[in-house]
Write a structure and sequence with these properties.
- The protein has two domains: 116 residues, Roll (Diaminopimelate Epimerase, Chain A, domain 1), CATH 3.10.310; 118 residues, Diaminopimelate Epimerase, Chain A, domain 1 (Roll).
- A hairpin with a 3-residue loop joins strand 13 and strand 14.
- By secondary structure, it is an alpha+beta fold.
- The chain has four helices and 18 strands.
- It starts with 6 loop residues before the first strand and ends with a strand.
- The longest helix has 14 residues.
Amino acid sequence: MRFTKMRFTKMHGAGNDYVYVNCFQEEIVGSIPELAIAVSDRRIGIGSDGLILIMPSEKADARMRMFNADGSESAMCGNGIRCVAKYVYDHGIAKKENLKIETGAGVLSLDLEISDGLVSRVCVDMGEPGLEPSVIPTTLPGPKVVNYPLEYGGHNLFATCVSMGNPHCVIFVPEATDELVLQIGPMIENDPRFPKRTNVEFVEVLAPGEVNQRTWERGSGETWACGTGASAVCVAGVLTGVTNRRILNHLRGGDLVLEWNEATNHVLMTGPAVEVFSGDW
């Protein structure tokens, strides 16, 4: 399929990279899912984990639409929304250190850290976690799915399921191996007990306040970071009793700080946002 010429910007949050299009200025013509597939290709496209559109909003400073590398649309992306906030501020769409961004999971609040006139880090109020199976969604039983036993490929695993605007299956393991992430991850993603598929986090607990995370992301495969996944890990760690409410999460592309606030029930995520380059497609 052919697309009209458009300006794009490549950005990443902790290595979770997307192609961003400023729809305040650019018009997308044609199928957006097909465009997402085309630009995400790392050999014959721009190369990314997906496509994010930065759009006007009637109830926030901007609206984010996020498409995975396979063209499927997701309601939220934690690393992506930090980059949206950076773009909105740095490019003059809204010169405010406190932004509201509309997503498929609602309007989220973001606090920006400014260095030399540009955004360096962003704290996102990710909202309340969804814990009911019907909200996630999953058909696994219980009022909450916490340490539920699952078996895949000879591995006995224990799943804790959380929605942070999109579904997550968090599994604490002694070691997040390639076999688990690359072979078992897609099995869990496509398990029919997750009607809308699921993201899968394999997590090593280093200390009550520190973890390592690897993510098999729904529609994109392994990504170097997943902000909603890191938020889900923070919640799952508290539910299973293996971590504190505030943690440092080491992902393949960098570090995120998460806190599940007991008073508000909201998850706060803080991490970097980086603009890499711009070009024409």
